[in-house]
Design brief:
This protein is mainly α. The chain has one domain: Hydantoin permease (Orthogonal Bundle), CATH 1.10.4160. The longest helix is centred in the C-terminal third of the chain and has 34 residues. The chain is globular. The model has no long low-confidence stretch (mean pLDDT 82).
Length: 345
């Protein structure tokens, strides 16, 4: 019985870290779900299923590869998979993680400023400092924080979904006869998963070395991918119940939360920040570990330098970073994810 409890415990922690790394500002606000899924009506749930399959399959492959190589960072995995081109992949991923850190700090700064009145840069700095403190704790810090925050995020999402289901508005009222577009559904499901898998490789690869039991890694990948799919499906359904007004909102989820009541508006703000924070620590951790592994640095300076770089980038603003950089990330992410999936790890 002891080995079973350990298996479940490790699988749960892996799943929470996986989910925490993927969800971020775009997911929390509902913008990602709107742009990738909700616009396809009821058929969007098929695209979500495609994303879930990829989350499970590619996520498991990355962790197994990390286990095989005893990876201390994603660099070991990319070197193994991409050979002579690994240095270019690592540079691309390093730039990606720094920019995503900047985007998350920017999102946090904007949230602090708009909702609490704290200056933008102070809100971003507080988030960066907390992310740095968790990052220097290593894999254990990542697992501990996500094991607390992610269940809270799941509970809040479940509450919003139940509220939508119990309401008098149903998705079918708005999408009867919506045309089926199989190529578009395949494209959006694959693109969404690829985009987010690239963000998670920096955490998943070292996790494979930290949790050596293959069964725990497999359980974690299935739980993580399944929970991500569940969160997407619940968020998508709730947004479909509020079409068309959610299409005209910068924060679509706020349209739903505002219907629930005052307390939940403030709870939603905390949820958004928490999702931003978990993504920030995942990306900062990826940069920190690869610098330590490649340059044999034992101090916390690389993590502090990466956090500082993210704070500089956040000065460009959240919307600018997302509109300029994220589309490129999705396209290249598809190529890298496909290669990871078909390569024999």
């Amino acid at each position: 019985m002891k080995w079973k409890s350990s298996l479940i415990y490790d699988g749960f922690r892996i799943a929470m870290a996986y989910v925490g790394t993927v969800v971020g500002a775009g997911f929390a606000t509902g913008q990602e779900i709107i742009q990738f899924f909700t616009c396809y009506g009821y058929y969007s749930f098929w695209a979500i299923l495609i994303s879930v399959i990829l989350f499970i399959a590619v996520g498991r492959r990355i962790m197994l590869c990390g286990r095989k190589l005893n990876a201390q960072s994603y660099g070991s995995v990319t070197s193994y998979l991409f050979g002579n081109t690994a240095s270019f992949v690592n540079i691309y991923l390093g730039i990606t993680f720094i920019f995503v850190c900047g985007a998350m700090f920017a999102g946090a700064g904007a949230l602090f400023k708009e909702q609490i009145g704290i200056p933008y840069i102070i809100g971003a700095f507080i988030t960066a400092l907390l992310a740095l403190l968790v990052t220097i704790k290593g894999v254990k810090g990542i697992l501990a924080v996500n094991s607390v925050i992610v269940p809270c995020l799941i509970a809040f999402s479940l509450f919003v979904f139940i509220n939508a289901v119990s309401g008098d508005r149903k998705p079918v009222d708005y999408f009867v006869g919506y045309p089926l577009n199989i190529p578009a559904l395949l494209k959006t499901g694959i693109t969404y998963a690829s985009f987010n898998l690239i963000l998670s490789i920096g955490v998943l690869a070292p996790l494979g070395a930290e949790v050596y039991d293959i069964r725990a890694l497999t359980l974690g990948s299935f739980l993580g991918g399944g929970i991500l799919g569940l969160l997407l499906a619940m968020g998508n359904y709730a947004l479909l119940c509020r079409v068309p007004e959610v299409f005209y909102s910068e924060v679509p989820q706020m349209v739903i939360v505002n219907q629930i009541g005052g307390f939940f508006v403030y709870a939603f703000m905390l949820v958004v920040w928490a999702e931003i924070f978990t993504t920030a620590i995942g990306n900062l951790f990826a940069i920190y570990t690869i610098i330590k592994e490649n340059y044999y640095v034992s101090s916390y300076l690389p993590a502090a330098a990466a956090a500082a770089a993210g704070l500089i980038i956040c000065l460009f603003g959240f919307s600018n970073i997302v509109s300029w950089f994220y589309p490129i990330l999705g396209m290249i992410g598809f190529i890298l994810s496909a290669f990871i999936l078909i390569n024999n790890a």
